[in-house]
Design goal:
alpha/beta; 6-stranded parallel sheet; 3-stranded mixed sheet; 13% strand; globular
Length: 296
Amino acid sequence: MSASLPSLAFAGLGLMGVPMCRRLLAAGYPLAVWNRSPGKRELLAAEGAKAVEVPAELAADAEILMLCLADTAAVREVVFGAGGIVENARPGQLLVDFSSAEPAATREMAAELEARCGVRWVDAPVSGGTPGAESGSLAIMAGGRAADIERLRPVLSRLGQRLTRMGEVGAGQVTKVCNQMIVACNALVIAEVVALAERAGVDASLVAPALAGGFADSKPLQILAPQMAESRYEPVKWHIRTLLKDLDTAVKLSREQGAATPMSGLAAQLMRLHGSQGYLERDPATLVEQYRTAVE
């Protein structure tokens, strides 16, 4: 089966990267993987992937290079740093970046990569969290040439339920910023709601089912409210650190564009306060603790 499928390479085996790679392996794609910590590489090697020691090795044979990294700096390092992808990259390859990165930096890196080695860039950040990565139901918002995105569509169909071209390179990252603004503000309001319901003597575990199907309903409500009501914070499905990073990107982008984003600015401050109390690597469901411990 794999003889007719393009060879893939994947850098970044975190909460999202591992389940995404597993779906690609299950679909029969030849897959090389790299991660800074070797344990994740070995995990996927045992499941059929080829583990490599440095990112440059990913570009040796792959037709499509995939990244799912922590932030813009990590993307830049893996692509352009010592032992980076650029050392072996060649014309005809495509790089698709699932990371949440800064739009302007994404455009700069895409232009540099194409100028140096002829590899074109598609930014394709995702939404849906680890459940979406595991089930292949991610929403993928892409920026890049239309032909490049269509070339990727068969592969990305294994990872997501929907792939939308938002425009040229960088447009996917702008859309992801918008997504994260909604998600982060929603998470904070849900935390307020759960804490308020508890203080008012209402069974907070009933809030999500009671509001299901109404105008206040949302996926974050149905996921986070029950976890908050039960103080159930494990396993961690996403991190406060990630939401804070994305909110900071939103505030930066709004300044660059001269746009007003006061709610996201406040959300960033509240998220930073929560992170400073030891929650940076914890699940956003822990946000409810900020309101439970607030001084009346």
